[in-house]
């Protein structure tokens, strides 16, 4: 990332050097002054650091929500340590925040209101993320190390106050964006400098905050926010970080692609999540082949018979569809064990399987086309993808921080919980369609004309894409299920479908899980006694060891302020 920042800085400097008439430069409102050049490079750094920070907790949050395989240990105590978030904490408090404040101080006198407001929105999001993960965090006294009254050991502000301050910062940004011009001060990877889009995002984040905090009264704000309008409800308004396909100098590809498409085997996918998509409904979710790529589609029985030492199923030597741990069966008799799908070859790991790593790299299901920019799974090809970054869309994926489908899902939740007067069923239907539209749009990143079979007829990759009919059938199935369910069941279906659409966004999945105790029937730990669920992250070691006012929380079972569920929650 440092090389990427340097390259962006060079681009900014060259854009200034290209202007030869300095007098014109000083008076041209569209020109770039020396002060603006500093602001430009700073803005590039801010966006890069922001994306690094918001991406950092993915595997922590996604593993707990069963979106990704949680493999750090057999118990929750063993899975995550205080050092895990040292880098993120330092990047946010020592990198992003000082840069953000410096940029705002530079940009506002230059009349760059939209650019300054966009940084305030990122700053608000960062604080919301930290409050969601840790609870109380430094806010009121943060960033005061160089002030007149230096504060080098900031105390923590209660999470509820952090949220309130973040909402106030969003309001400030919205007001600043009112009538503001688009900005070209620096490259804006999110919205291309659009003041209107940044304002839409700010209003949407206020909605997100209202639903997130609905258990402590935040839901009362939902109706007025929606009635005011201008929230993210179309895919062209999505808040997404766009990765490139450059392998070196800099490597700007999706982290998931880097994880699975170079020389390493990559992380394990969640057996339960793949089963949820591939088998739980009795037919495969058409998005499954976009999310995941199976390097070997014939694991059972072929690979199991040919290479039995490649598997570590804990209770059986090899995958066995006739065996299921009794505590799995107590949750659901259909609960997957050792494989996400025996018939389709989706191979990852069970929840809290912290055993050693056998030689199974060639069999693992890896990240696919969406959102990682990897390979689309055409259902025909058995190939490994550890090929030095030459497969699929070359990593040109996205970070789905907030999408239009997410807005519809949380509004459906709000409608079912008495916080919004919309039609929850229609919102659910629209949410699923928006998710499909965004996922299938990734087809444009690969060559669909590649022939994958010639007998008995010629078949191309495009022939295997999710067509309108399969999408309609999926939505019809879910809506029939929804109509037949009681109110509790309806909310469970909304949560399940939201979790599926969230793929690539671990934080919102973790928040959903803690807020609703849903979806139901998630896979338990492979050890029958995994200990208590992690309801918030322990504070990073750098915070505890370097801040004289910092003390570690009593336990990771301590909930954040908006999580008022009791210990019987479906964790």
TrEMBL record:
By its UniProt entry, which PROSITE patterns does this protein fall under?
A: PROKAR_LIPOPROTEIN
**Entry keyword annotation includes Flavoprotein:** no
The record's listing under InterPro entries reads: SusD-like, SusD-like_2, TPR-like_helical_dom_sf
Gene3D superfamilies referenced in this protein's UniProt entry, alphabetically: 1.25.40.390
Signal peptide annotation: 1-17
Give the record's keywords alphabetically.
Lipoprotein, Signal
Q: What is this protein called?
A: SusD/RagB family nutrient-binding outer membrane lipoprotein
Query: Taxonomic classification, please?
Result: Bacteria, Pseudomonadati, Bacteroidota, Saprospiria, Saprospirales
């Amino acid at each position: 990332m440092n090389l990427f920042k340097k390259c962006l800085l060079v681009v900014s400097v060259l854009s200034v050097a290209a202007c030869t008439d300095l007098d014109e430069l000083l008076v041209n409102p569209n020109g770039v002054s020396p002060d603006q050049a500093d602001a430009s490079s700073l803005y590039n750094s801010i966006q890069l650091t922001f994306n690094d920070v918001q991406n950092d907790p993915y595997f922590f949050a996604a593993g707990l929500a069963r979106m990704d395989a949680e493999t750090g240990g057999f118990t929750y105590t063993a899975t995550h340590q205080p050092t895990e978030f040292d880098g993120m904490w330092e990047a946010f408090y020592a990198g992003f925040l000082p840069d953000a404040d410096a940029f705002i101080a530079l940009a506002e006198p230059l009349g760059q209101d939209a650019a300054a407001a966009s940084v305030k929105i990122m700053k608000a999001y960062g604080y919301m993320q930290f409050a969601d993960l840790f609870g109380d965090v430094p806010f009121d006294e943060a960033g005061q190390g160089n002030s007149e009254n230096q504060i080098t050991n900031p105390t923590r502000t209660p999470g509820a106050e952090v949220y309130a301050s973040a909402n106030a910062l969003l309001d400030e940004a919205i007001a600043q964006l009112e009538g503001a011009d688009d900005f070209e001060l620096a490259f804006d990877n999110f919205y291309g400098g659009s003041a209107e889009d940044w304002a839409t995002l700010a209003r949407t984040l206020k909605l997100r905050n209202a639903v997130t905090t609905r258990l402590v009264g935040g839901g009362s704000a939902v109706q007025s926010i929606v009635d005011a309008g201008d929230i993210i409800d179309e895919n062209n308004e999505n808040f997404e970080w766009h990765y490139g396909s450059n392998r070196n100098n800099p490597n700007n590809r999706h982290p998931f692609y880097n994880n699975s498409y170079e020389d390493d085997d990559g992380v394990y996918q969640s057996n339960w999540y793949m089963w949820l998509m591939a088998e739980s409904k009795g037919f495969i979710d058409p998005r499954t082949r976009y999310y995941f790529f199976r390097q070997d589609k014939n694991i059972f029985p072929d690979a199991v018979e040919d290479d039995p030492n490649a598997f570590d199923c804990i209770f059986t030597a090899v995958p066995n569809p006739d065996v299921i741990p009794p505590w799995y069966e107590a949750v659901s008799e259909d609960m997957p064990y050792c494989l996400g799908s025996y018939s389709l070859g989706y191979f990852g790991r069970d929840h809290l399987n912290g055993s050693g790593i056998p030689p199974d790299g060639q069999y693992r299901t890896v990240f696919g086309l969406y959102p990682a920019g990897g390979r689309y799974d055409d259902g025909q090809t058995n190939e490994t993808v550890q090929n030095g970054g030459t497969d699929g869309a070359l990593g040109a994926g996205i970070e789905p921080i907030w999408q239009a489908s997410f807005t519809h899902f949380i509004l459906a939740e709000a409608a079912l919980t008495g916080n919004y007067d919309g039609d929850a069923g229609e919102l659910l239907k629209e949410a699923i369609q928006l998710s499909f539209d965004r996922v299938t749009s990734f087809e444009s990143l690969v060559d669909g004309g590649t022939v994958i079979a010639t007998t008995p007829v010629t078949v191309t990759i495009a022939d295997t894409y999710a067509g309108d009919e399969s999408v309609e059938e999926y939505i019809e199935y879910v809506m029939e299920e929804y109509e037949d369910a009681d109110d509790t069941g309806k909310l469970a279906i909304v949560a399940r479908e939201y979790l599926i659409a969230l793929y690539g966004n671990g934080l919102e999945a973790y928040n959903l899980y803690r807020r609703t105790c849903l979806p139901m029937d998630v896979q338990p730990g492979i050890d029958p006694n995994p200990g208590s669920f992690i309801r918030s992250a322990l504070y990073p070691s750098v915070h505890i060891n370097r801040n004289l006012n910092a003390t570690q929380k009593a336990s990771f079972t301590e909930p954040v302020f908006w999580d008022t569920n009791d210990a019987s929650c479906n964790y």
